[in-house]
Design a protein that fits this description.
By secondary structure, the protein is an alpha+beta fold. The protein is 24% helix and 30% strand.
């Protein structure tokens, strides 16, 4: 098991319900999640999610 450090790269991921999360870039994405496009530090990824994910409800509820 590897430990995350300040240099660990993360990827912003999104699922079919348009819910966001971060995932370590050195790991295979879990089923049902796709890379959203941004890879960076944990703080960069979390800041990006805060900007783009303005409605926390699942997409199926918003429609």
């Amino acid at each position: 098991m590897t430990v995350a450090t300040a240099e660990t790269a993360y990827t912003v991921v999104v699922n079919d319900e348009r819910q966001y999360s971060i995932w370590r870039s050195d790991r295979e994405l879990p089923v049902g999640w796709q890379a959203e496009g941004l890879t960076g530090s944990k703080d960069e990824c979390l800041d990006h999610i805060e900007t783009v994910w303005t409605d926390m409800r699942p997409h199926s509820v918003r429609s």
